[in-house]
Structure formats: structure tokens, C-alpha cells
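Box S2. Input/output pair 1.
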Amino acid sequence: MQDGMVQLPVVNLQEPAQAPTRGGAAYKPSRFNHFHTLPTGEKLAFNSLSGGLAVLDSEGWARYTALAKGEPLDPKNPVDQGLVEGRFVVPENFDELAYLKTLHLRQRYTTEAWSLTICPTIDCNFGCDYCFQRHRVSRMTEAVQAKLLEVFAQKAPRLSKFFVTWFGGEPTLAWDVVQRLSQGFLEVAERNRVEYSASLITNGYLLDEGKVADMVRYRIHLVQITLDGDAPYHDQRRHLLTGEGSFERILANLRLFLGKPVFVHIRVNVDVRNREGVPALLKRLAEEGLAHQENLRVYFAPVTSTAPPSHGVKGFCFTRKDFARIEPEYFTLAESLGLATLPYPSLQLGGCVAAHPEGFVVEPDGTLQKCWDTVGAARVRRGQPPGIRSPATCGEPCLPALDVLGPLLRRARLLPLHLASCVHGGVSLEGGLPRGHARGEGGAGVHHLQVELEAYLYFASRTCGRGRAGTSPLHGLGKGGEEDAVGREAWTAYSS
């Protein structure tokens, strides 16, 4: 794109449209456009369906306005081409909601790919005060393992992809189960030409060279490990059951992944107690040689208290507004140290495991759950392994909360970014009854989630524009003085 449209390095067209070869067609503005005025006076344009991001100067903005008012498209004009490819304008008779719904439902109800979350154990060697699970000594029985392999073997001839997430508890406490099932899954996948891969959620304490070698062998391509700040902060909250600290050993274990074909996400859970320890953690990671590694990235998440075991930390949790203010600081520092790339809002279609009729969390005794947050909660279990073969096992209470294309959300400009959002708050854990909102904090509904995304996008747009305006990516963020109207509106609604 030249002249009126300047392409930014972060442009990421996920659902581009093809520009017509003939002129004269009538177009209309996309309902999924989001515009932000840069300090230069240019317009930063984002389309949440295509994922396209572009900068429009005065000429480009004038051309967009003309097309939005019905002026015929000129296929030879590079600005017109860019506006169409980025879906900033769409054909007059094109139903964007119907198109998005088709993409979403096709992804949710696909029968060619299958994902399972498997808990080899729900026991744990850590005593984290904010954990949402009720741990107990457990180990997946051989009978349950055999049933999982049997069901996969029955489904495999109709599958093209199979993905497993190893979860817990702490899955490394039952590593032999991971090994045995992984080997079985690989054998079935190879016989049926199914693409198999896996991920692992672990606290990282029991990792060693042998387990990392197993990950490569068993196609565990992604590992998540948590560090909650530098040692003094981390060891206060993520310690062994004996009270002994875990930071230094986990840090040493991270080096085991250097040069290995396994991608590592270092998750940093943040609340008011450890917020000051995050910068020190990032600097320590860089000092230890973990920066600028192709297979290692850091990201940040707010501590929440969604399930009863974690309710004791509710008073320490950030509001969404407060976390949105500090997260950019962390990402900016992490990026400068070579530990992260700045986040970019992208099209989310499939949703979490709860959104898929045959997506389940399998507990050690074979109990099926529809959500990671409900592992160990008998009152919301969905059945036993034979039910994996039947979409009906999902249970009716899940379905109302999963209607992300309901009347309220249809008005959201950022709806395509919301389709994979957590629906945990939309299904009551005390009986499976819909609460009427997809996620919330103190009863906040989907409208507030939309505002949350707008506030996030506002940060991203300022970050993407840095260098052009000569300002810091955090300049004026949330301070109420220099934001444009969109930013002020987002922050005002977000804090209400």
C-alpha cells in the first residue's frame, strides 16, 4: 500500500478480502472498524475481523470517507485496494455478521480437529495461595488411560489434527502417565496420518534434561512455566508445600530449553503484592542469558479469584482498569530486554475447550469437565470417558453462555476479538445456570468486556504509533489529558 495508506510493521491480515478488478461497485464502512487519531493528525485504522492495521493520512482518510458515503470504488487506486483488502470497506450487500458467524461455527463444530486437556494427576507439590484448584493425591488409572487411547483410535480415521494439553495439578508428578499416553497417541496418529502435537502447563520445578528430551520426542511443542517476580516475591507465593522457595531451581530449569525445539511461555501472575517485583524478574531473566531467545517469551496475567479456593486473595487482585495501566509498562520493558513482543489483537474464532462440543478436561479418575477452572469440582462434572464420543455430553447449561453472537454482542465493534474469550463467568458453578454475561468482575457484563478490549486496543494503537509521533508508547495512557475522544470514552466507561 503506497501513498495514502502507510503499512505498519504490525499489520497482520488474517482474513483479507480480494479487491475487485472492475470499478463502479458500491461499498460501505465495516462495522468492525476502530479508528484512533495519532498525534501527527493521521488516522490509525484497525479492523477486528481482518486484523488489518494501517495509517491513513488526510488523502487516505478522505478516500475512506468518500467510499463510506457511497462513492464508487476505483480498483486502480492503491488506497481503495488497501481499504478493501483490510476490510475497512465492504460490499454494500455483504453481511459481516453472517460471515463471522460462519467462520466461528465452522471452527467450533469442526470434526476434523480434536483437542483434549488431560490431567495425569490433580496433586501438586506447590502451595500457591491464589490457586483455584482443590488438590488431592491422585494418579490417572491404567483403565482411564486405555479408554482415552481407545476413544482416540476410534476417532482418528476421521481426524486431521489432534492436540493435547497436559494439565494438573502438576503433571510432572505423574510423568510416566504423560510418557505412556504420549507414546500411544503418537502411534495411533502415525497409523492414521493425524497431525499430533501437545502443550504442557507446569510449575517447572521437577523439570530435568530427561523430561525436556521427552517433550521433543513426544511433540510437546509448547510449555508454560510461571515465575511471579524475582526470588523474594515469587518464593512468598509459589513455594513448595514445605514452604521452601522454588525460584532458583525453576530459573535453572529454564536454561534446559535453550536451543531446543520447544517454545516456552513464562507466565507472570500479578497482583498488588508482587507488582514491584516484576521489573526485577525481567532484568534477572536477561542477565541469566534468557533474552533474545527464539523459543522463549514472557507474558503477564492478573491474579483472579474466580473459584472458591482462591477467594482468599480477592482483596489483592487488580481491577481490570488498574491492570491495564501497568501491563503496558511490563510489556515495554520486556520487549526492550528481548523477552517479549508487544501484544497485538487478533481474530479469535474457536473459543476455549468449553465452547467445543467434544472438548473436555479429563481428570485422573476419568471424570470429564468443560473448564480448567472446575477441575476437581464434582458438582459440575460432565460424565466419564465414553461420553467423549457424544457431543451431548457438553450439557445444556453450557450452551446459553456460549452464544457469543447474541443480540448484545452483535453491536460490538471488536466482536471478532471476543469469540475465544473465557465463558467461565457465564455458567454458574453452583448449578450450571446461565448468568447472562460472558465474563465479569462484580457482575460486569459483556459491554464492559467490549470496553476492556477497546482500552487494550487504545494502548496497542499508541504503541504501534511510537517513533512516528516521537513519543513513548505509554505517553498519556490513562491520564485523562492527551487521549483522543475514543481513548477518553474507553477509559471513562471502563472505570465505571
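Box S3. Input/output pair 2.
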Amino acid sequence: MKTVVKLLVLTIVIVEVAAEPCMSSMKEYDPESQLCCDYGVVPKFNEHGQKLDCCSEKTFIVETEICCERDVFKKLTEDGKEQSCCGATSYEKSEKVCCNNTLTDKINGINSCCGSSLINPKTTICCRGSNSNKKPHSIGTHMKCCGVEYYNKTTHYCTSKKKGMVLPLLKSLCNNNEYDILKQKCCTGTLYNVSDSDEQYTCCGTKLYNTVDEKCCDGSFTIPHAAECCEKGHFYPSSQKCCNGLPVNITSSTEECCGNGLYDRPYQECCGNVIYNTSSHQCCQPGGDIIVKLTEYKCCGKISYDSHEDVCCTKHNSHYDTIYKIITKSVENHDTCCVPSEIEKSQSYSSITHRCQLGGIINKTDMCGIHPYNETSDLCCGGVLDKMGLEEGRDCCGIKSYDMTSKICCDSTIYLKTNKLSCHQNSTEFIDVIQRTLPRHRDYGICSYCNLHTIQNVKEFLESPTNLCKQFVLKIAKLTTSMAGNTTTVDGFIHKDLLSQKTFKNTRFNSKYLAHVN
């Protein structure tokens, strides 16, 4: 019989608890084993291992005792009844009720409080005000609380629940004085002998005014009814404009404000607060410089600059705002700016001979589309770059390059020489034809035969600048040809447009073309 010996490895982790200051004794204590009470640091557990807590200048056992302000009492009475605190006194919860630190005997099991009073919620309502104030009232018909007050809503209304202020209907307060709203109106603390419901007379600040004759501006002053407000004054729209808070007389309906003056819009404009002639001058954005047109001076944002000496650089920041910077030309014929990631490192250059690519200046003759290329080794086909294409013996066919030793280019389409020895060799499976609407006979135009390879290059075929057959690529059947001199007649039936995938039933096709003459 084998004996199995098991080894138990006990790992003890020692956690060091940082001491905290006890402000009452100005000493440090360990919160895991000590209490910081008003009178100093004491043990957190008694000699029996029971947890303690502070109670003014003493401690109590949390499990069996309660602390009522400064005194300690048992949680349970000798006969096992639970005790609770009512202020600094303990009481039996089954016998008494504590209302606002006042003990009251329970009556028929009622234990609802309203302030310091015990109430029956079936017959009494407790109205609550601010600062925890409460007041009991006998429940009545049409009655409602307003703070601690109780009022009849058919004869009175509550003006302030916070203050518990009740007023008779048709009464109100004006600067804390009660008044009759049928006879008086209150304008910001000032009473007038006009009914509050009279809409012809209303308030403008502390002033009462007649709305037929006047109007109120900014809630503080009145002006004639025919006028309009103009900051602290007024103006008459038929003959004046309000410019910068001042009334200015106008002579034309097209005049507009510019600062404190007027300008005539068809011939003049406003730049900030300055009037300028639009035929001879230009404003560099609102509030910017004003420059003379057709001179060396130009705008760069709000700032003007001499275009003979400088160029304007612009860049958008992360908030899509435009940043402007004027730099001095490095060469006299430079006319624009190349901006890298940091606008401070901008450079001037000539847009005629160079271009700006990713913040760097590149010679235009060294570009193929958007890519730099070497004219002695690379091949550029309609803006499409073929690296080392020239050096490796390739040539362009439309926008594609091809190997001239094994392929042939016909009308921007590349063929294998094993399938097509020359561009005039006919293949009768597919044909493309110039026709704008189908089916419709057309006895003129230029078309070309093509083989299966053409279908793989439909996009290039249509985009070619030299091929005129761009409207349809048609699949035809029963193709017959006949020649008369240099003219060849092609006859057959159209089956399908390979571009739109449209099919045709029994649509006859007939075309004539001139044979190529080499």
C-alpha cells in the first residue's frame, strides 16, 4: 500500500498599512486597529474582540449598544424590546414615536409626524415649508398647501410656496405692498391707477406707457411709435439709418451703414468701418487692408503685400481655418508658394516650370501625372507611369505599355502577335459600331473589327482619345462581308451590347467602310 504525503505550502502576505494622522490628538494612528475619537486615539476592538466606535468622549460596542449624541444605551431592553435614539434619549420604538427629537406616546398605532406633532394622516395634512418647517392642518374641501400655510383655492392663491405667502384672488404684490389688480398695474415696484388687464397701457421698466403712441426699447425707455430703437436712442426708417447707435439721414434707398457713415452700395462697399470705391479698390476681407486694383499689391488674408517682392502662402489648420503667411520671393520670377506641413517653412516657386508635390518643389518636365519619373529610363503613357519601361523596350498603347517584340497595338488595344500580325487583319466574331440610338440604320461612320481580346479592354477602348467607335461594343451573328473596290459592306444581326448588356432580337445590322490604304 502506497502512502501519499501531501505538502501544504502556506504563503503569508504582509501588507503594510500606512498610518494616518488623528487631528484630535495630533498623533498618527493605525485605522485597521485603532479609532480616532474626539478625545484621542483608542483601540478599535475591546479585550473580547468586539468592534468599538466613538461616542463623544467614550466608546460603545457596535453590535450591542447605540450612541445617542453623548450617551451610550443598550440596543435591546431587558425584556428584549428594540431601542432607538430620539435626540440624546433612548426609547422603545414599539411604545413611542420620536417627532423632531420630541417623544410622544403612540395613539392607536399612529406613528406619523408633522414637525414635533403626532398626526393622523387620514384627518390631518402636513404642509411643508422651507428650512424643514412643517405645520399640521385639518383636511378640508378645496384646500391646498402653500409652504406651511393651508388655503382655500377658490378664494385665494399661493404667491410663494417658499415663503408660504397666500393672497386673495384679484390681489397681487407690488414692492411687497398688496394691491387690487382690477384698479392698478405694477411696473417694477411702481403702482399706476390703470387696470392690470388693460393691454393699451403696459410697462417699460418702471414707466407706464400708451402702446398707441409709444413703443419700448431695451425694456428701459420709450420712443415715438413711428420710430425704431437705435441703442439708447431712436431713428425713423423712412429717412434715417441707425449706424453704430446713431441716427444718420439717408438720401438714397440703396445707402447702407459703414461705421458712423453711409455708402452707396452699387458703387461703394464697406471694409470694416472704411468706405471704398469698388471699381478702383479691393478690400482684403472684412476689416482688412484696402488695396488699389490692377497694381502689384495683392491680398493675403486681411494683409496686403507687394507681389513683385513677396508671395502669399495659405494652409488649413485642424479646425479648417485658413492660415496666411507672406514670404519674400527667393527668385524674381516666382509667382506662388509651396507649403509643407509647417507653414513657416514655405518656399516660393514658379508655377510655369515647377509644381508643389507633398510640400516639395518638383520640375514639371520630370512628372508623369502625379508621379516623378526619369525621361531616359521610364515610360509615361497618358499620365500612367511604367517604371523602367523605356529602358526595357516597351512602348505606349493608349494609357498602357506593351512589349513590342511579342505584341501589337491597334487603336489603343493590345494584341498578341500570334493572334494578329497587323492592325488590318479581320476577325468577325465581334464588331463595334458608331450608333447613338438602336436599332437604327446608319450608312456612314468609322468602325473597326476586333477580336475576343477587345472585350477585356472595353474601358481603355472607350477612353482612348484616338478611337472613334465609343458608343457600343456589339456582339453580332451571321456576319457577311462583300467588297466593291475600296468599299466593304458588312451585314449581320445584332445579339447584344456588351457594355450595357442590352439584348436585341432579330435586329439587322448593315455598314459600309473604306478599306485602309497603306
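Caption for Box S3: Helices lie at 458-463. Residues 280-372 form one domain.
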